[in-house]
Amino acid sequence: MAVDLYYVLASPPCRAVLMGAKLIGIDLNLKLVDISRGEQMSPEFLKINPQHTVPVLDDNGFRLNESRVMLTYLSDKYGKDDSLYPKDLQKRARIDQLLYFDLEKIATPKRDYFKQHVLGDLPVDEEKFQQITKNFPFLEQILDGAEFVAGDSLSVADVTLVADIANYDVVGIDLKKYPNINRWYTKCQQVIPDYEEINGKGAAQFKRFWDFLISQKK
């Protein structure tokens, strides 16, 4: 049976799982959730995920609702090798650390600004917007002298980070200020299969939603 993924393309976590699946070589049964119509709050979806969030992975009744866990799970279960998520404990620990780094240091500042100043009632604040990159120097340092975030080969940590960085890019953050990040970002676009179809189009969808919400505040 196919593995189901409930998703929204504008969501970086959803795109991370989609890109990871491409790299692993597993065909997902995609189930688009129309959040504009509140489908994530429907009784049917709440039975699948009471937290009413996407993505949700359903592997023949085994369900996960955290994208970084989905990436490691799919890599372990369906990967042809362990290149994306090595079995070596020290390499794996390094990648796990970067997955947490993405969640706390990269994804959260953007998400908080979006919820408060774009989706929420607080006004657009350019000074606070620029502060969402406050942790970029850490990522810039991680990538100093390294092709990918965990070393010389692409890993699930790169996949989840590049999904988030793409959203920073489209909302106006100048990545050229961070040469290591910009170099790595370009490299990921070159090596991840169907990158533009997944991450490019998804980030563009997020940008349209961001712009629409800001226009309503004027």
TrEMBL record:
Alphabetized UniProt keyword annotations: Transferase
Q: Where is the GST N-terminal domain?
A: 1-82
- Supply the Pfam families for this chain: GST_C, GST_N_3
Q: Which GO terms describe its biological process?
A: glutathione metabolic process
Which residues belong to any copy of the GST C-terminal domain?
88-209
Molecular function (Gene Ontology), one example: glutathione transferase activity
**PANTHER family linked:** GLUTATHIONE S TRANSFERASE D10, ISOFORM A-RELATED (PTHR43969:SF9)
| Quaternary structure and interacting proteins, as annotated | Homodimer.
Q: Write down what this protein is called.
A: Glutathione S-transferase D11
Organism whose genome encodes this protein: Bemisia tabaci (Sweetpotato whitefly)
